[in-house]
Target: Trafficking protein particle complex subunit 5, putative
Amino acid sequence: MGESIGVRMIELIYCREKRLKKESKHIEILQFISSAVWKSLFGKNADGITTAEGEQYGYFIKDYNPLILKYISEDERIGGAALIVGIIKGILNHTGFDAQVYYSTVEGQDDKEKYISMYPATHFFIKFEPWVVEREK
Model:
């Protein structure tokens, strides 16, 4: 769900911003998603990108006040954030960065991560295929 939206989003953003250079490194595409794509979808940048501890090719895109959860009701089978997972996956696959994408919601407040929201923070976990990262060396 959402992968076809991701393909159209990246084409639209590249066209709007008149980008001549496409991202060739996995860190660059993560920064592009957390800034340009997030801004286009939600009117703000994502709250951060971090590496996943214990995962060699894993990263988190964090959103502490996810607008998607405001307007889409949660279902026990599929959450509102699943649409964003599909969009991220569509963008990554369309640009040649094969990855698995998951999400998790985080209730409560962390010492390091201060946020105030009635909706749980959402972390999008992106795990690149090993060959994607290895080709950059």
Observations:
- The radius of gyration is 15 Å.
